[in-house]
């Protein structure tokens, strides 16, 4: 039973880490194998999107119909997952400065930590494992659960409340894109946006984030937000 009234749901890419090139390559290899194309992979802005949504957008840019996309869609996702798991050992993933120190402090304060990420679940945990962050997270909402990010938030909340016994009133969604903010607002949750991805502090403020920080180096600022 969780004895704390604070829950934080973290995005991964652009928020905790950067540099997962193997994930990008998994798209290239999967799309090439199952759909005979690869030139549109670089054309999609992946920020804040689920793996399922990104894949659909890539294939739609290639002119495929919904039926053509759906035919090998799950097989392609499965291939991408297998490709990533086989190659993650070669990933050079950078953990943003201050991240580990912040997560350590949150654990010491018994904050419940979860994930809301567009990554397919096996890819998410493999990526975190490669980055040395697996020990902080044991549940979440993933791109394999749903293409809609707000429904990933719903899944993570359900696990926290129904399986882990969380009944607190302080819930924060932490991410680096407007999509993270939008997904949290669907459930009236507070948002902490971090400008370590492709969006600036101003852009994150303008999209309606409740709090915006440049990075996780200032742990005291984050803690002040949680316990104000």
From TrEMBL:
<dbReference type="InterPro" id="IPR023198">
    <property type="entry name" value="PGP-like_dom2"/>
</dbReference>
<dbReference type="InterPro" id="IPR050155">
    <property type="entry name" value="HAD-like_hydrolase_sf"/>
</dbReference>
<dbReference type="Pfam" id="PF13419">
    <property type="entry name" value="HAD_2"/>
</dbReference>
<dbReference type="GO" id="GO:0008967">
    <property type="term" value="F:phosphoglycolate phosphatase activity"/>
</dbReference>
<dbReference type="GO" id="GO:0006281">
    <property type="term" value="P:DNA repair"/>
</dbReference>
<dbReference type="InterPro" id="IPR023214">
    <property type="entry name" value="HAD_sf"/>
</dbReference>
<protein>
    <submittedName>
        <fullName>Haloacid dehalogenase</fullName>
    </submittedName>
</protein>
<dbReference type="InterPro" id="IPR041492">
    <property type="entry name" value="HAD_2"/>
</dbReference>
<dbReference type="InterPro" id="IPR036412">
    <property type="entry name" value="HAD-like_sf"/>
</dbReference>
């Amino acid at each position: 039973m969780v004895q704390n009234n604070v829950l934080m749901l973290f995005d991964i890419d652009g928020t905790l880490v950067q540099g997962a090139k193997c994930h990008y390559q998994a798209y290239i290899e999967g799309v090439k194998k199952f759909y005979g194309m690869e030139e549109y992979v670089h054309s999609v802005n992946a920020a804040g999107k689920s793996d399922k949504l990104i894949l659909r957008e890539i294939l739609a840019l290639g002119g495929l119909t919904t039926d053509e996309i759906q035919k090998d869609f799950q097989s392609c996702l499965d291939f991408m997952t297998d490709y990533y798991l086989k190659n993650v050992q070669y990933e050079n993933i950078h953990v943003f400065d201050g991240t580990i120190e912040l997560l350590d402090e949150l654990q010491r304060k018994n904050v419940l930590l979860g994930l809301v990420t567009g990554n397919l679940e096996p890819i998410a945990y493999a990526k975190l494992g490669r980055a040395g962050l697996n020990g902080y997270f044991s549940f979440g909402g993933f791109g394999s659960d749903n293409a809609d990010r707000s429904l990933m938030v719903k899944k993570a909340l359900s696990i926290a409340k129904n399986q882990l016994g969380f009944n607190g009133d302080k819930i924060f969604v932490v991410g680096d894109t407007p999509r993270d903010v939008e997904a949290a607002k669907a459930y009236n949750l507070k948002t902490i946006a971090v400008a370590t991805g492709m969006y600036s502090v101003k852009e994150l403020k303008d999209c309606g984030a409740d709090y915006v920080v440049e990075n996780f180096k200032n742990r005291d600022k984050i803690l002040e937000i949680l316990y104000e």
